[in-house]
Write a structure and sequence with these properties.
Blueprint: H1 11-16, H2 29-32, E1 42-44, E2 51-53, E3 57-58, H3 67-79, E4 84-86, H4 94-105, E5 112-117, H5 128-139, E6 144-147, H6 153-165, E7 171-176, H7 182-191, E8 196-200, H8 212-219, E9 222-226, H9 257-266, E10 273-274, H10 281-289, H11 298-308
Parallel strand pairs: 3-4, 4-5, 5-6, 6-7, 7-8, 8-9, 9-10
Antiparallel strand pairs: 1-2
Helix pairs in contact: 3-4, 3-10, 7-8
The structure holds NADP nicotinamide-adenine-dinucleotide phosphate (NAP).
Length: about 300
């Protein structure tokens, strides 16, 4: 699968773009974030049936984002209906800033907070229970605790299952954003009673579709899609240039390429939610808007894939 729009959009797409004539990427912010009256899309966590909004927030930049911006983003996210926040013990001061902002805003109990555990001797400054205790101290509440790296799963799973048994966290999981690790991840998905996995998934990286997503569906494991926009260095939107969206995108409330990419991700039946990283308020608003309205159906997903591959 190519990770670039390999060819210009077809003449048909351009002609069909009547409704969205011109450069959609240049639409004013108010329009891209429009239609907040459309219904919020939620999906159930298979292990419990608890419904969460499909559009969350990734925060690996929040350690170096000015505190006032973090506060404003979290406040706005909650106003827009979003609840799912993904952070990690390893993300610098991300947990610190999130914990402080949510507490000041009185939102801690309203949000669904996921963080990731460092293992002792791993890349973080502390590991194991100490890492969890520090996350709790910073965030006040952790709904979902991941083992950050596949390499640490064997060592950390007893602690995770213990914390869940004690009711300190409600859900546990494993993250891996490296495709070569998927065989090991699949083994752990079969071996341990995890509630969530977090893997890379975007139109530019569909490697999870082969085995991880089908196994997650089979074993009733929720999937949180990381790096849904391709990531800062490989941003999918930067590969789109000034191409226009196809007219049919409007049928799904898609008014920008970022929304196109995000709606693609969360419309996969096995994906429970996505966590686009947004350290800018306008990005957060645009992304949250993609968590409302209609999701693309299977036929539309195929059209999106063909468009991305330059075949439409
Ligand atoms: N488990 C793991 O090991 C792991 C690894 C990587 C990531 N993650 C998680 O996944 C999250 C998402 O990954 P990511 O942040 O690397 O990649 P991403 O979400 O695919 O992309 C984030 C980038 O997209 C930009 N962006 C966001 N919304 C946009 C919009 N509407 N229009 C244009 N640009 C937009 C952001 O800019 P601004 O920041 O300027 O808004 C940022 O540069 C992380 O924050 C983290 O929580 C987990």
């Amino acid at each position: 699968m190519t990770s670039e729009l390999a060819a210009p959009l077809s003449r048909r797409d351009v002609l069909q773009a009547g409704l969205l004539a011109g450069c959609v990427g240049a639409l004013p912010r108010s329009l891209r974030a429009a239609d907040s009256s459309a219904p919020l899309i939620t999906k159930p966590i298979p292990a419990s049936g608890e419904k969460i909004p499909v559009m969350g927030l990734g925060t690996n930049q929040f350690g170096r984002t000015p505190y006032d911006d973090v506060r404003e983003i979290l406040k706005r996210m909650q106003q827009l209906g979003g609840t799912v926040i993904d952070t990690a013990a390893l993300y610098g001061d991300s947990e610190v800033q999130i914990g402080k902002a949510l507490s000041e805003l009185g939102l801690t109990q309203k949000m669904f907070i996921a963080t990731k555990l460092n293992a002792p001797g791993g890349p973080g400054d502390i590991g194991g229970r100490e890492s969890f205790d520090r996350s709790m101290q910073r965030l006040q509440k952790v709904d979902l605790l991941f083992v950050h790296f596949v390499e640490s799963v064997e060592a950390m799973m007893p602690l995770l299952t213990d914390l869940k048994k004690q009711g300190r966290v409600r859900y546990i999981g494993i993250t891996s954003i490296r495709t070569p690790q998927y065989p090991q991840l699949l083994e752990y998905m079969r071996k341990y009673p995890i509630d969530f996995v977090q893997v890379n998934y975007s139109l530019g990286d569909r490697s999870a579709e082969a085995e991880v997503l089908p196994l997650a569906e089979q074993r009733k494991i929720a999937v949180m899609a990381a790096v849904p926009l391709g990531g800062g260095r490989n941003l999918l939107i930067s590969q789109v240039g000034d191409r226009t969206l196809p007219a049919w995108a409007a049928d799904f409330g898609i008014a920008s390429w970022s929304q196109f990419f995000l709606k693609y991700v969360v419309s996969h039946p096995a994906i429970t939610c996505a966590i686009p990283g947004s350290s800018k308020l306008e990005h957060l608003e645009e992304n949250q808007a993609a968590g409302r309205g209609r999701l693309p159906d299977a036929a539309t997903r195929t059209k999106m894939e063909q468009l991305w591959a330059g075949k439409a």
